[in-house]
Write a structure and sequence with these properties.
heterodimer; A: about 400 residues; B: about 260 residues; alpha/beta; globular
């Protein structure tokens, strides 16, 4: 296999991706592309980014051998990439930091962002406080209800949180409003998109900023086990933690890659967020990718217990990986994710975010099918503190954990 | 020939010394069966062509008025398909050119080639796709050319000179000059640079230049029309039809007429 080189110069990953945005935004998207290209080739920018990753975010994050979980499941050895130990509790800050530094470099003082679970909103509000940028975050009203604590956290950090009541009041609608806001304020505002979605260069740029996950993992794994892991697992909403984890392994054809989508109440109920498993190709939020949509091309609402996976689209590079069969995509239901969350909490003393719990739950299916001398690395993308209340409700209150 | 029909209608209006008036309506707001009557009404009021919006779940270029109209149309079960069907069925009853405004995904879902063919059969003369910039338009242009459907390009206040030239050169039907940096919807005032921008666009193309986004008052129609060939009015028309205040529409259209009665 020749070395993987995507996207092309127009931002397409095979037949996916691109820049499907109103003309008003095109100059900003092109400016961003050029600014990012210069920054990524500038050693000073990389040095600054790495400095903050180390001293502020707390990288590198550990690659931890989950011995008790391995024993509990039987089969391959399980390693956890502890993105949950990052400042603000998830991988989201890797990207938010990179883009905020770029905002300063572009001479813009204002930032707009969308958030689903609130993790990207918190990460963005955090780096905006760090760098003295004005920050406005759009969040669906349903998500605001589900993630009250994160809303308050963003406000403490000085961000303005705007409730979005259009549509289903979740992540998709928050992205729509953030895009509308960006169209109207594009001259002095940068849009820090939270995943590997949106128009080019966002999917590539966010992937690159998140690739620190996979790059560290590769090195850390080689130090303890020598060679490469046999399988890598990550959950997928838009797909940024998965892309950050997978991308450095893309040319290592012996490493099997598994992406885990939210199966919601079950694929057959129609209430899920399994875009790659069940969707059709279309155009949303500036990119061509798999989407949950009806026969007429209307984008449907996604459903998941986890606000961070509740998105009817997916990063275009994941669509490409599906097409070239580089990644295997599966789905895990709400109930399975809850079981995964309980399993990791009890086996290892780590409460994962509901998003990451989908990846953990998939291990229960995968690990027992692999021999004990093989290894799986799972991206533990975030910690579960934000979800404790939602989990308590889902499990039926106290005494049912 | 659909494209030619659009060009002829514009020429005819301009040759009388009038300016062009293109009202936007959300297809199916009030039910798909109301559409032929709404078109007829606007034609009788003196519109040059009709821009018909196709409802979409995620209209990122639209402000609150058109978003709400789209949701009402979706609640009525209206789709690109039902609009094209209705237009085909009533094609013989109208002479005014029709331009569809639709986001890309409904077209992609319909099938690009099938869409262009259906447009021709339905008597649709041109289309406007707000989320299709120059860089991606190759997705549609071959099929649209096959069926002679005009692709109306949008220019923006933020576009560089170089982009404006390209957009102005490539446009078909007319050049849609977006007059605000933002989404559709009424505005109290326009930026000073809008007049320079419109005059500049006029020098870049032979096609009519129409100002749109934010135009809601007869004074604004008159003021903007001085610098270009006419206007597109959307949110105000949508609101007037929905709230049954049709009397508000006539003064807007009259503001583009040379021998204006008022």
């Amino acid at each position: 296999m020749s070395a993987y080189q995507q996207p092309n110069e127009t931002g397409h990953f095979g037949s996916f991706g691109g820049r499907f945005v109103p003309e008003t935004l095109m100059p900003a998207v092109i400016e961003l592309e050029q600014a990012y290209k210069q920054a990524s080739e500038d050693p000073e920018f990389q040095k600054e980014f790495n400095y903050y990753l180390k001293k502020y975010v707390g990288r590198e994050t550990p690659l931890y051998f989950a011995e008790r979980l391995t024993k509990a499941l039987g089969g391959a050895k399980i390693y956890l990439k502890r993105e949950d130990l990052n400042h603000t509790g998830a991988h989201k800050i890797n990207n938010a930091l990179g883009q905020a530094l770029l905002t300063v470099r572009m001479g813009k003082q204002k930032v707009v962002a969308e958030t689903g679970a609130g993790q990207h909103g918190v990460a963005t509000a955090t780096v905006c406080a760090l760098l003295g940028l004005e920050c406005i975050v759009f969040m669906g009203e349903e998500d605001i209800r589900r993630q009250k604590l994160n809303v308050f956290r963003m406000e403490l950090l000085g961000a303005k949180v705007v409730s979005v009541s259009q549509g289903s009041g979740t992540l998709k609608d928050a992205v729509n409003e953030a895009l509308r806001y960006w169209v109207a304020h594009v001259e002095d505002t940068h849009y820090i998109i939270g995943s590997v979605v949106g128009p080019h260069p966002f999917p590539k740029m966010v992937r690159d900023f998140q690739s620190v996950i996979g790059t560290e993992t590769k090195q850390q794994f080689a130090e303890v086990e020598a060679g490469l892991p046999d399988a890598v697992v990550a959950c997928i909403g838009g797909g940024s933690n998965a892309m950050g984890m997978f991308y450095p392994f893309v040319n290592a054809s012996t490493v099997k890659l598994y992406g885990v989508e939210a199966g919601g109440s079950g694929i057959d109920t129609g209430k899920h967020a399994a875009t790659l498993t069940e969707g059709k190709v279309g155009i949303l939020h500036g990119t061509m990718t798999y989407l949950l949509q009806d026969q007429e091309g209307q984008v449907e609402e996604a459903h998941s217990i986890s606000a961070g996976l509740d998105y009817p689209g997916v990063g275009p590079e994941h669509s490409h990986f599906k097409e070239i069969k580089r990644v295997n995509y599966h789905s895990i239901t709400d109930n399975e994710a809850l079981e995964g969350l309980k399993l990791l909490s009890r086996a290892e003393g780590i409460i994962p975010a509901l998003e990451s719990a989908h990846a953990i739950a998939y291990l229960e299916k995968l690990a027992p099918t692999m021999p004990a001398d093989q290894s799986i690395v799972v991206c533990l993308s975030g910690r579960g503190d934000k979800d404790v209340e939602a989990v308590k409700d889902a499990l039926g209150g106290e005494g049912n954990a | 020939m659909p494209k030619a029909k659009l060009d002829q209608a514009f020429e005819q209006t301009l040759s009388k010394g009038d300016k062009i008036f293109v009202p936007y309506i959300m297809a199916g707001d009030g039910g798909i069966d109301a559409l032929p009557e709404q078109i007829k009404f606007l034609q009788e009021q003196g519109a040059t062509a009709i821009e018909l919006g196709i409802p979409f779940s995620d209209p990122v270029a639209d402000g609150p008025t058109i978003q709400a109209a789209g949701l009402r149309a979706l609640a009525e079960g209206v789709s690109l398909r039902s609009v094209l069907d209705k237009l085909t069925e009533t094609k013989q009853d109208r002479s005014i050119p029709i331009v569809l405004m639709t986001y890309l995904n409904p077209i992609y879902s319909y099938g690009i080639e099938a869409f262009a063919l259906s447009c021709q059969q339905a008597g649709v003369d041109g289309i406007i796709v707000p989320d299709l910039p120059l860089e991606e338009e190759g997705l549609l242009t071959p099929s649209l050319a096959d069926y002679q459907i005009a692709l109306i390009r949008l220019a923006a206040l933020t576009s560089s000179n170089q982009r404006l030239k390209k957009i102005a050169t490539q446009t078909e039907g007319f050049l849609y000059a977006v007059t605000v940096t933002g989404t559709t919807g009424e505005r109290a005032a326009f930026a000073d640079k809008v007049t320079i921008y419109l005059e500049q666009l006029k020098t870049m193309t032979d096609k009519p230049v129409l100002a749109g986004f934010g135009v809601s008052k007869p004074e604004q129609v008159r003021a903007l029309s001085k610098y270009c060939d006419g206007v597109v009015v959307g949110s105000k028309i949508v609101a007037s039809l929905h709230e049954n205040k049709r009397a508000e529409i006539k003064p807007l259209i009259q503001a583009t007429k040379n021998r204006s009665a008022n």
